[in-house]
Amino acid sequence: MRKLIVKYSSILMVTSGLVFLPSCDNNFEAINTNPNTVPVLTPSLMFSKALYDGAANSGNKGSLLFGLMQYTTSYNDVEGFGSKYVASQVNATGAVFNNSYPTQINEIEEVIKAVKVDPAKINMYAMARIWRVYCFSRLTDLYGDIPYSEAAQGYNLKNYQPKYDAQSAIYADMLKELDEAAASLDPAQTLTYGSSDLIYGGNVEKWKKFAYSLMLRLGMRLTKVEEATAQSWVTKAIAGGVIRDYADIAKMSYTASGQNINKNPVAWQLLNDNYIKADGVSNVEGGKYQQVFIDSLKANNDPRLGVLAVVYVKGVASSQDSIQKGMPATITGTKPGDFVTYSEPKQTTVLRVDAPLLLFTVAETDFLLAEAALRNWYTTETASDLYEAGIRAAMKQWDLISGIADVIDQDRIDSYVTAHTLHSSATVEEQKAQIYTQFWLGIFPDAQEVYNNYRRTGYPALVPNVYPGNATGGQIFRRFLYPVSEQTLNRSSYNEAVANQGADDLMTKIWWDNK
User: Fold this and answer.
1) DSSP of 140-153
2) Residue range 85-113: mean pLDDT, rounded
3) pLDDT digits over 58-83, tens only?
4) CA-CA distance, 385 to 313, in Å (whole number)?
5) How far apart, in Å, are the Cα atoms of 157 and each of 16, 152, 506?
6) Using 50, 70 and 90 to split pLDDT, how confident is the model at 156?
7) Which of 324, 463, 473, 511 is 20 to 30 A away from residue 108, measured at CA?
8) What gap in Å lies between CA 54 and CA 138, rounded to an integer?
C-alpha cells in the first residue's frame, strides 16, 4: 500500500514529526520542524519542477521508443527491447506510468490547487492547465485508459485506488481544458511564473500558441475514430493561432553544469546508457543507430546525416556521409566484430546536454497542417507548400539543438526539398505517406510523437523486426503495459480498465487507434 500512496498522493511539503511522550513537549514544534522543508507551497518553484519532470519523463523513453521507431538498436536484448520486442522485457513498458504520477502529475496538480483560487493568478492557472494536458496526453497516448479525474487525490482525499478514465473521456476533457485555458490567458494580467517558467519565461501570447498547437496535435489524433470531432478541434486550433515562428517553439532549456535535472534528459540518458566514453567501442548497453534509419538518410542524400551521426575511426568521430552505417536490429547476444564501424549519435548535437528539448516545433505544425490541407480542413495554404515548409523547418531546428547558426548548408536543404516534392498527382494516401515519412525524419528525437502518428496513419511504413522470442508475433506493438503493481495495489480499477479497453497486452489498440 505504501507504494500506491506514494504514486497517487499529492506532494507533501512538510514531513511528519516523531511521536514523543506527553511530558516532553517543550519546544516540540521547533524540534520537530524539518529545516529542509517549507510549510507553504511556492507555486512558481513547483511549476519549474513539474516542467522538468514532465519534460524528462515525456521527452524520452530511452531505447524503447527509439528502437520501436527504428532509430536505434542494440545487440543486447534488454537494451534492444524496443527494436526486438523481446518477451522477457515487456514489463519495462510500465516505467513511464510508475514515474509520472509521483512527479509531474502530482506536482502540476498541486500548482493548480494553489493558484486557481486567486483571480489575479489567472495566467498562472491557465499555464498550469496547459502543462497538465501536455503531461496527461503523453501518458494516455502510451497506455490508453489511465487514472485521470481521480489522479493525485491520495493525500487530500485519501483516494489511494483511483479509477481509470476511458481515453475518450480523457481526450474530451483535455481538449476542453486547452480551449478554456487558451481563452482565459490575459496579457493585461501581468502576474505569471516569470523566470520559473522554463519554456516561455511567462510570455502569455506564446503559451496561448502552445495551447492551440496542442489542440491541433490532439485534434488530429482523432481522425481514425471521430473524424468530425477531429475537424472541429483542428479548425478551432488553427483559428486560435498555432506555432509557426521559430521564436514561438515550445522548448525546455538546460545547462551542462549543476544537477542532472538541469541537463537535457534525452541526451543525458543516451550518454549514460551508451555513449559517455565517445570512442565507438565502450557502449555499455551495445547501442547504435539502426540500419533502417541510417539507410534512409543515406539513400535520400539527407543533409541531416552528418549532423546526427558519427562513426569513430581510430578513436576519432567522423561525420563523413559515406562511412555512416546503421546496425541491423537482428544482431543478437554478442557484440559484433565490426561494432566500431556502426554509426551512433553525435556528441555535439543529439548528445549535447545543454541543448534545448523541443516540445512542439514549427515542423510539427507544418506537417499536421499539410494533412489538414489534404483533408480540405485548411485552405489558406497548399499541402505541398506546407509539406516543404515542414522539411525546411525540421532541418532549421538543428540550429537550436546544436547552438550553431546554419548548421545545415542552405544549398543542401534546397536540393533536398527539390528532390522530395509532394507528388500532386499521387493519391491522398500516398501524399500522407510522404508527409509522415518526413515527419519520422524531421521530428527526431521526439520518438513518441512519431510513434503516435505511426499508429494513427500507418506511416512511415516500417517493416517489423521478426526476432526470436518476441512478444508480439513480429508486429510493432500498439501500446505500453500497465505496471504489474497495478494488478495488486489497484486491482478493481485495473480490472475495470481492462474490461473497457481490452486485454492488458502490447497489441491491444487504444481508443483513438481502434480501427
Assistant:
1) HHHHSSEE-TTTT-
2) 94
3) 545 566 899 999 999 999 988 889 99
4) 41
5) 18, 9, 33
6) confident
7) 511
8) 9
Residue for cell digits 512519431? 450
Element at 310 (helix H, strand E): strand 309-313
Assess contact for 443 and 398: CB atoms under 8 A.
no
**Residue 200 φ then ψ, to 5°:** -125, 5
Q: What are phi and psi of 345, to 5 degrees?
A: -60, 145
Q: Is the pLDDT of residue 23 over 70?
A: no
pLDDT of res. 10: 53
**Model pLDDT, residue 17:** 31
Separation of alpha carbons 204 and 353, rounded Å: 28
The pLDDT tens digits of the residues spanning 449-491 come to: 999 999 999 999 999 999 888 999 999 999 999 999 999 999 9
**Gyration radius of the chain's alpha carbons:** 23
CA 171 to each of CA 71, 219, 457: distance values in angstroms, whole numbers, following the listed order: 29, 9, 18
Residue 32 to residue 18: CA distance in whole angstroms: 7
Residue 52: which H helix or E strand, with range? helix 43-59
pLDDT in tens, 335-351: 999 999 999 999 999 99
From residue 40, how far is each of 6, 14, 37, 117 by CA, in Å?
20, 8, 9, 15
State how far the Cα of 274 lies from the Cα of 74, in Å rounded to an integer: 10
* DSSP letters for 460-502: S-PPP---TTBSSSSS---SPPPPTTHHHHSHHHHHHHHHHH-
Contacts of 455 (CB under 8 A, 6+ apart): 478, 509, 513
Q: Classify burial at 276, counting beta carbons within 10 Å of its beta carbon; exposed 0-12, middle 13-18, buried 19 or more.
A: middle
Instruction: Please say whether the beta carbons of 505 and 472 come within 8 A.
Output: no
Q: What is the pLDDT of residues 393-438, one digit of tens each?
A: 999 999 999 999 999 999 999 999 999 999 989 999 999 999 999 9
How far from chain centre, in Å, is Cα 375? 26
